[in-house]
Amino acid sequence: MINKNNPELSWISLILRVAVASIFAVAAYSKFVMGLGNFAANMTGMFKDTLLPGWLLVPYINILPFAEFLIAVWLLLGIKLREAWIFTAFVLMTLGFGMVVAKQGAVASENYIYMMMACLGIYLSKYDGCSLLSCCGSKK
To answer: Nearest CA to 72 among 30, 19, 21, 14?
Structure first.
């Protein structure tokens, strides 16, 4: 349901949510299509000569496609939206840090821009009343 006191911020929040969810959905989809083993091998190779230890890197790489898929679904559903945006910002922060370590400055910059979008999502979440629960007639 659109916030009657701030309909513009409600719409901005909804549009931002769908846009970021679509980015994460495509990112997760591409990793699954590539094959999780191929994705893990490519990423592990990218970090081969960096300060990040393998015991930390390998679990992160294996969980990332599932986390991206979770973010896409969670943002689209709109349930516990503030928490969804906080989780999204955290994932983007870790991705950005990893790309800095891997000396992938352009990719890191994109991740940090997306992280700022997630921070905006955290702020706007209080105006966003569109969720799966509101469609069913329940309160958030």
So the answer is: 21
Coil, strand or helix: which one is 128? strand
**By the 8 A CB rule, do 114 and 9 touch?**
no
Residue type, 137: G
Q: List, in order, residues 6 or more apart from 42 with CB less than 8 Å away.
A: 34
The contacts of residue 8 (CB under 8 Å, 6+ apart) are: none
CA distance 27 to 55: 24
Sequential pLDDT tens for the chain (140 residues): 666 787 899 899 999 999 999 999 999 999 999 999 999 999 988 898 888 888 889 999 999 999 999 999 999 999 999 999 999 999 999 999 999 999 999 999 999 999 999 999 999 999 987 776 665 444 44
